[in-house]
Amino acid sequence: MEIPVIDLSRYLEIADQLGTEPVILSGQIEEFGSWLGELCKEVSQILRETGALVVKDPRCTAEDNDKFIDMMERYFERPREFKLLQERSHLHYQVGVTPEGVEVPRSLVDEEMQKKLKGMPKEFQPSTPSGPDPKWRYMWRVGPRPSNTRFKELNSEPVIPEGFPEWKDTMDSWGCKMISTIEAVAEMAAIGFGLSKCAFTSLMKQGPHLLAPTGSDLNCHRQEGHVFAGYHYDLNFLTIHGRSRFPGLNIWLRNGQKIEVKVPSGCLLIQTGKQIEWLTAGECMAGMHEVVVTNRTIDAIKLASQQNRSLWRVSSTLFAHIASDAVLKPLGHFVESPLASKYPPMCSGEFVEQELAVINLKGNKGES
Predict the structure, then answer these.
(1) Domain Isopenicillin N synthase-like Fe(2+) 2OG dioxygenase, which positions (predicted)?
(2) pLDDT tens for residues 233-279?
(3) Which of 365, 363, 361 shows the shortest CA–CA distance to 101?
(4) CB 357 within 8 A of CB 106
(5) CA 352, CA 363: separation in Å to the nearest integer?
């Protein structure tokens, strides 16, 4: 199975003309034509069934993605001693680099999850990690933060490595573009779920969004089955990635089936996190996924070697969050869901702290 590609172009052309409330929207959907309602329902249906969505956004080009990945490849290729100059462990890795061997996959520490994995059919079981993830990550805040919040982030400056004069502009530009894509998808999903257009995006304002690209060294770790990111879900609202130059991402559909994701050039991958599960009372579950070396990864390694390209696998991951002081609770008609009681009202910041306590990564705002 391949996840269908949703082209956002047509929606973006009319998005600013749409009202916010379902009653107004229903009339406008008739006015613009049936395609609008059908497209939004398709977005919500795909997120519900697969936990992932592949989109094409004309504002985010393949060239933008390449520029970002080129810079991150050059960074991750630098010696370990250089990269550790950007480590801020005393700030819980909220900014700067997180070395390999720090992030712990949830499947290693969550006993309930381990029981579920043992009950899966063999062909759908995830790869078993031997320890913490052998990937590096760089944390970069995107967008404004609230001046008054119960969940004040440490007042730390962004970390910019020496020798990268384009760093800030490249990180901010790509991060803001991907946030814009998330916002469009969040509006479409809300409409598709029968909520107000801004049901999700109003809660995202001044959220602790993080551009958090990972780097995995395929010079050292190229054996098939090697785990870069163990089986887990993301704790945030929605996660977005540009296309990686090396395949290896597996996701699990709602029916338990495991599939390898293929993202066409010029497209972006979006995955559901735990916060959207909360807001929809489980109608849209947090998507489970892993990153491992597959036969397709090995083929890509061979080609990159022949072309003398970098063998660092970069994922341009961005974690989009619900604002820390906003309340997570089932929205609209999802309050009537029989599962609503499993999702009691809770401040988003409290939820994030609880989730991070489990994986011992206080300060990081996502897990991917």
Answers:
(1) 227-321
(2) 999 999 999 999 999 999 999 888 999 999 999 999 999 999 999 99
(3) 361
(4) no
(5) 9
The one-letter code for the residue type at 305 is S
Instruction: Determine contact, residues 154/91, Cβ cutoff 8 Å.
Output: yes
* Chain center to CA of 37: 25
Positive or negative, the Cα torsion across 92, 93, 96, 98?
positive
Nearest Cα to Cα of residue 348 among 198, 196, 208: 208
How is residue 32 written in tokens?
Answer: 């613009």
| CA 255 and chain centroid, separation | 21
Residue 324 vs residues 209, 335, 367: alpha-carbon distances, Å: 10, 21, 17
Rounded CA-CA distance 69/64 in Å is: 9
Alpha-carbon distance 247 to 301, whole Å? 10
Q: ∠ at Cα 224 (242, 97), nearest 5°?
A: 45
3-state secondary structure 155-194: CCCCCCCCCCCCHHHHHHHHHHHHHHHHHHHHHHHHHHCC
Residue 258, H or E segment? strand 258-260
Helix (H) or strand (E) holding 35: helix 34-50
For 37-82, the pLDDT digits (tens) are 999 999 999 999 999 999 999 999 999 999 999 999 999 999 999 9
